[in-house]
Amino acid sequence: MPTIRIVLLFFLLICFSNSIIAETELPTEQEISKTTDEALKYLKESNFEKSLITSRVALQQALIAKNNNLIAISYNIIAANYNEFSEYDKAIFYYKKALFFANKTTDNILKNRINNNLGNMYCFEKKQYEKGIEFYKKSLEYSKKEKDTALVYLININITWAYFDIGDFKKGIPHFKYIKENYNRDISKSTIVVFYMLSGMYYSYMNDHNKANACFLTAIKEGKAGIEKSDLSYSYLEYSKFLTRIGNYKEAYQYLKEYNNINESIYNEEKLKKAERAGFNLELDEYKRQIGRIEIEKDTQYQSLRKSYIIVLLFILTSCIFLILIVTLYKNIIFKKRTNAQLLFTNEELIKAKEQAEEASVLKTQFISTISHELRTPLYGVVGITNMLLEEHKELARSQHLSSLKFSARYLLSLVNDILQINKIEENKVVLESLTFNISDEINMIKNSLSFLSQKNKNHISVIIDSDIPEYLIGDKLRFAQILMNLVSNALKFTKKGEVFIIANLVKVVEKAHYIEFQIKDTGMGIAAVDQDKIFEKFVQVGRKEEDYQGTGLGLTIVKRLLGLFGSSISLESSIGEGTIFTFTIAFDYDPEKTKSIINEIQVDLTSNQMFKVLVVEDNRINQIVTRKIIEKNNYSCTVVDDGYAALEILEKECFDIILMDINMPLMNGFETTRKIRLKDIKTPIVALTAFDKDEITEEAISAGINDIIIKPFESMKLFKIMNCLIVETKNAG
């Protein structure tokens, strides 16, 4: 390789103008610079193993310090090592990495050198001249900015050579004229040889044979006087081409022989270097095999110890120690002791951090559980009393104050449910159910339930369902409805006087699984590209105005997490002012036989002309009023007691068809009250009417003898459906 094409390493480390932040645990710029100096020194000494190891250590330190300048320098040195191995693809890869981080800095000298290195690689190693010349031109721009005349001259020589090499003299001549005008004898011996060789090529192209001949002979004379023989060999070759062109074949042959003799000499030296590199590569391969064995061992241990986070951390750290020991055998025992001490200290810090994280997680779960219960209890009273006022006083139906009260209560309840839902998904407490449902009915029900919101913004909802989708499917319709509800309501909020489309298409069928693609498309305000990656994060609201109601910022987060449970993901297409399209695919099962059996088991008529007696065990006075009103409104007989002891006392005297039991009561809670009722051999069905989340109490409720659970606030239709089912089942069993 000619000297002019040798990779330009960044060996002048830049002095930083900003002062180092005192008392930091991160590696300082001086420490990282010292490491890169060592890596560069090893490279110049052809100690490639140490150069690679040291430059990678410098790279890790620079990444931790987030110093783009030093990251680029480290990548540049790594690339130079691979260039020396003739592994040009790897060299180009790391040079591009270096250029990426260099472009984030204001260091034009660094950008210049890396661009020049890439130009060398593409022009003279990969023979991709157009790409290489583009990098040269970039390098030239930075050289001019820094007024580095030596580099400007050198890069113009490289560009001239590249163009002349491919015979594009017209593009190369402007650069040749520059090097000709700025030529002086102070430049390096190698550069003088190349200058006269390029001059010979230029005059040959211009058909000035005398000048061409003189320039080639000068290049050969200067090359013989110098140490670097590769430039001399290229001068022989180009002169031989010139002599052939003018018909002097005998001399052309003699100079071609000279070219071959020098190349053979260079080739023999290259063979020795390649042999040394091959030996080094064998050592690297051995390191890789040892690392591979350790990785396999690490994976095996990880599977057996995955339940213990602390042990996993220790194992990873121990694996790191093994890797460090493998590639740093030349280090002495003092270095090992210092490294072990640092690792032990880090391990102690990680243990403390893990304990704090676990404690914080427990506290978070307890807080969410407590706050959701404390909020749902009064919300039950607010929603219930609001409904009672609307039913008993029809003249208040148009009252803005009462509508605002009901809306605020439901909004607060929605917020509580969203936060609880996020927490349950994060703790892997959500399990998908298999229910038979009609997908058309579900979508139209969601459309109807959001009619108020669509009318508010003067929007229209259109439903388009593929006729190939089966009428009945099997899957978790509740989670599916929640996904669709969140996406459609979100589209309606951000669309004014427009249209929202709900589109369902069957995309493929694999055995019983029917893959259905859903699109929620609106003609609203759209989402900027810069915000599209953020909208699925918790509590993020894009385009929110202070005077608008935009929700809690949890809806799209819940959508993404629920789709994850279905094994699906969501994509987004949007432009400002052109609307938004959310797309996702869910696989539902289609099993006609199973669907038929489920439908046949559904009890259609759960009503009864008989008046049932209901016992309500509830300590909250407001909730007593609301529950009694709901029950008596449906012609049921209702008796209310304040606590568990009163419930046991009245059950000694009277019989009831069903008991509605609050859980969180003073003196004796709902679980204990139920256990005492069952000990008296009372078979009356008991329904837990509670503000606790269902998943939190299900296990204890079953063990206590509770038949079902309803969460406050609730839909009265759901309450009476469950009550009727339990009463009928109990009477039939009796």
TrEMBL record:
It is an enzyme of class 2 (transferase). Residues 613-727 form the Response regulatory domain. SUPFAM superfamilies: ATPase domain of HSP90 chaperone/DNA topoisomerase II/histidine kinase, CheY-like, Homodimeric domain of signal transducing histidine kinase, TPR-like. Its EC number is 2.7.13.3. Pfam families: HATPase_c, HisKA, Response_reg, TPR_8. It catalyses: ATP + protein L-histidine = ADP + protein N-phospho-L-histidine. Residues 1-22 form the signal peptide. Residues 370-590 form the Histidine kinase domain. The chain crosses the membrane at residues 309-330. The modification 4-aspartylphosphate is found at residue 662. Keywords: Membrane, Phosphoprotein, Signal, Transmembrane, Transmembrane helix. One of its GO terms (molecular function) is phosphorelay sensor kinase activity. This is histidine kinase.
